[in-house]
Amino acid sequence: MEKQTSPIKNVVLVHGAFADGSGYRGLYEVLTQKGYNVTVVQNPLSSLEADVKATTLALDKQDGPTILAGHSWGGAVITEAGNHPKVAALVYIAAFQPDNGESPLTWIQTLPPAPENGITPDENGILYFVKEKYHAGFCADLSEAEADFMYASQGAFYASAFATNITNAAWRHKPAFGIVATEDKAILPDIERNMYKRSNTKVTEIQGSHVVFMSQPAKVAAVIIEAAESVAAESLVASK
User: Fold this and answer.
1) 83 contact partners, CB below 8 Å, separation of at least 6
2) Which residue spans traverse the membrane (predicted)?
3) 234 pLDDT exceeds 80?
4) CATH topology of domain 10-239
5) Rounded CA gap, 154 and 167, in Å?
6) Rounded to whole angstroms, how far apart are CA atoms 80 and 7?
């Protein structure tokens, strides 16, 4: 195991919609090999409040300062859950980053969707990514077999959650790092850029699909490690 240089050793990962926590396996392995304690939240996707609660429970169990990272819809979750006192910094992985009074729906409507986008509601008000567009629209840089498994394991994501506004945006008072997935068809790269620019987030662009954390886990891990090390360094300077 490689020696970890940062005193921030905890990372909590929050998954997005149309997926589950199993997608974080590669990122988990990179981070744990570098000495980080990684927790993967299995958020229920039934409401913003429920997902924030699941994340808060995971944060409660951390033994010190923590980097909180979220993918896609998980960005909205960490924006609210990031107010937890153990959260030292936020990492947005091709993620929504709403402000107070905004929801992911606010931002997804700012540009026309990509033709490959297959997000569709059913008769119960649950959003799914339809199978015929899932591979190209969600995870084009993964194998077809991986895409089939992800499609089969996607959770039931309630549309009402997607439209729920943020009430206390943590990025307003905590350091934020953002990853733009340059080949993203689910959240357009320009939407990601516009959100991160507005919030003065430190941005890294990585070539990859919406699930860039799966196709480029080492590069995504590098951003999380950068967040941990830079926040720790700033704390050290401030304490002198």
Assistant:
1) 168, 170
2) none
3) no
4) Rossmann fold (3.40.50)
5) 27
6) 25
